[in-house]
Specification:
The complex is a heterodimer of chains A (255) and B (308).
Chain A (H helix, E strand, L loop, with lengths): L1 H15 L6 E7 L3 E4 L6 E11 L9 E8 L2 E12 L2 E14 L2 E5 L3 H4 L2 H7 L3 H4 L12 H14 L3 E4 L4 E3 L3 E8 L6 E11 L2 E14 L1 H12 L1 H26 L1
Parallel strand pairs in A: 2-12, 7-8
Antiparallel strand pairs in A: 1-3, 3-10, 4-7, 4-11, 5-6, 9-10, 11-12
Helix pairs in contact in A: 6-7
Chain B lengths: L1 E4 L4 E4 H18 L4 H10 L4 H25 L5 H28 L2 H32 L22 E4 L4 E4 L1 H17 L4 H11 L4 H26 L5 H22 L4 H24 L6 E5 L4
Antiparallel strand pairs in B: 1-2, 3-4
The chains are: A alpha+beta (255), B mainly alpha (308).
């Protein structure tokens, strides 16, 4: 009798949460480092993966995949221009604790359809959730407008991207997507997160890193400018002097 | 061909930058100005951050001024003693300017400050130059009429100040205070606007100090080399905003453009050149004024901040 009860209990829980136990994520990246050289013109990363399960795919809501790529976060100041004495100048401002320099979301379907609000709060997937702006309401009137403006500006210049239905999913098992990294990339570790979901609930997640680094001459100049600023300044002048003198000398020679 | 600029952290077409440098170099060769007042707004326009545009603009002016001063030295058109006095003031002005620049950046008003300086100074100088050269052109048209008598130098209050010094190349015996003050003003503007300040220095030397035109351009270029050089180093140390890659491309374009411009300028009359320069200066000033007065399409701006 007791054995039968346990069996029944096991069965009902299995039915109630059909996939929690047996659907897991495996994934890979086409490259895990990006080098910014002088002729760097953006880079495309292929993110692929598969769903591992020990029993056939459960019935019910279909499997969905969300992939996010997040650049290093920085603190930001958002300022709003107002008209003062006929001139447009920055008046009020809001400090954002941390906002990613780059953020891309790729999904298999409309975000609001496949992701529930609570799961978004827990995993920080949509753009408003990744912008960390705490306690801004006393910094300016209509503080939320500032954060909305940040989202709008960065969506406009393609620093933030939402690509719904850009993840290709085959047989609820294999998936792939391409994420284009823009040419004006900031250095740092880019965090790739993968989620599989059913009925708005996250079943499994994975995290990977892409290291974006300046290389070659770019690396050298950047390091020099920050570690030896005086030397760098002097070198800039020497370069200017040589170029200025060289050009007039060259033109004299041509003449 | 896109090129990634290591300090500005943006990717811009290399030929566009060479072209910008060439265009500004062409104008500077033609009119004998450094061209900083054009390069900074143009860099902002193609998407270079303001701090990098101002600091790198100063670096570019160093190269074009050196190129120019070499030509002037052959013509004995440089008053080194006057240049050194202007320079002493220039260093002080530039030092203060860089501090004000950093302070205004922290307050978030640097864009406004830079724009207002541009509107004010370019508008003022442009109008003065335009009025003066139009009068000269009208005079030239009334050929035959006696030109107004011009004395070698007019004695004004400037000549009554203490600390008199002899400037042989300029043929002047005046106090060092006015040139030092003019130098300081130009150094300040160089740090704020990323310009050499030739468009202020040249008229000031002619009309305030009474220097002969022969030595004015060379001496102003001489002073500008050191002031913009100092500004470049100060920006490199204070804010790491000098982009050597960007400067290199601008300079390469600039030196070629300057040579072509200098050739072409010999075919035009001095008054015509000055009217054209005045119109150019006024256009830039007018464009920046419009940006301040019209409602911008995007009211919000995003700048990097520091954690409290």
């Amino acid at each position: 009798m007791i054995r039968a009860l346990i069996l029944l209990l096991a069965l009902t829980t299995a039915v109630a949460s059909p996939a929690l136990a047996n659907e897991a994520l495996v994934s890979g990246l086409s490259q895990n480092r990006v080098q910014i050289t002088a002729n760097f013109d953006g880079s495309e990363i292929l993110i692929y993966g598969a769903v591992k399960r020990d029993s056939p795919a459960p019935k019910g809501p279909p499997l969905e995949v969300i992939v996010t790529v997040e650049g290093p976060s920085t603190a930001l100041i958002i300022r709003r221009k107002e008209r003062v004495a006929g001139i447009w100048l920055n008046r009020s401002s809001v400090n954002v604790d941390a906002a990613p320099s780059f953020y891309a979301v790729a999904t298999t379907d409309k975000l609001d359809k496949i992701l529930s609000g609570t799961e978004d709060l827990r995993h920080h997937i949509t753009i408003p959730q990744v912008i960390r702006a705490v306690g801004i309401s006393d910094e300016a009137e209509n503080a939320p407008d500032f954060v909305a403006a940040l989202e709008r500006i960065r969506l406009d210049d393609s620093r933030y991207r939402i690509a719904e239905r850009s993840v290709q999913l085959a047989d609820e098992t294999l998936f792939r997507t391409d994420v284009a990294l823009p040419a004006n990339l900031t250095e740092g570790n880019y965090k790739v997160r993968l989620f599989i979901l059913r009925g708005g609930v996250v079943l499994d997640t994975q995290e990977r890193l892409i290291a974006v680094r300046k290389a070659g001459l770019e690396r050298f100049l950047y390091n020099l400018a920050h570690q030896q600023p005086l030397l760098y300044g002097v070198l800039s002048l020497v370069m200017a002097a040589v170029a200025g003198w060289g050009a007039s000398a060259a033109f004299r020679f041509v003449r | 061909m896109q090129i990634y600029l290591p300090i500005a952290e943006v990717s811009i077409n290399a030929f566009l930058l060479l072209g910008l440098g060439g265009m500004v170099g062409f104008l500077s060769g033609m009119f004998g100005v450094g061209g900083g007042f054009l390069i900074t707004p143009l860099l902002l326009f193609v998407g270079v951050p303001p701090g990098v545009a101002v600091a790198t603009g100063a670096n570019q002016v160093v190269a074009s001024s050196i190129s120019g001063v070499l030509v002037q030295m052959k013509r004995k058109g440089v008053d080194f003693r006057m240049g050194l006095v202007l320079l002493a003031g220039g260093f002080a002005g530039s030092f203060i300017g860089v501090q004000v620049f950093a302070w205004m950046t922290a307050l978030g008003q640097i864009d406004l400050f830079v724009q207002l300086s541009y509107v004010l100074f370019l508008g003022l100088i442009g109008s003065m130059m335009f009025a003066e050269s139009t009068r000269a052109l009208i005079r030239a048209h009334r050929a035959g009429a006696a030109a107004p008598i011009r004395r070698a130098h007019v004695h004004t209050w400037v000549h009554k100040l203490p600390l008199q010094m002899k400037f042989r190349a300029s043929g002047l015996y005046i106090s060092v205070l006015p040139p030092a003050a003019i130098g300081a003003a130009v150094g300040f503007l160089s740090a704020i606007m990323g310009v050499g300040g030739g468009f202020i220095l040249v008229p000031a030397m002619i009309y305030l100090l009474g220097m002969p035109t022969r030595v004015v351009v060379g001496t102003s270029l001489f002073q500008i080399i050191f002031v913009t050089g100092f500004t470049t180093i100060m920006h490199a140390i204070n804010s790491q905003t000098v982009d050597m890659m960007l400067a290199f491309l601008l300079i390469m374009g600039g030196v070629i453009g300057a040579q072509i411009g200098a050739r072409l300028s010999t075919r035009l009359k001095a008054e015509q050149l000055r009217i054209m320069l005045a119109v150019l200066v006024l256009t830039v000033s007018f464009k920046i004024a419009l940006d301040l007065l019209l409602q911008p399409a995007e009211l919000f701006t995003v700048t990097p901040g520091l954690l409290p």
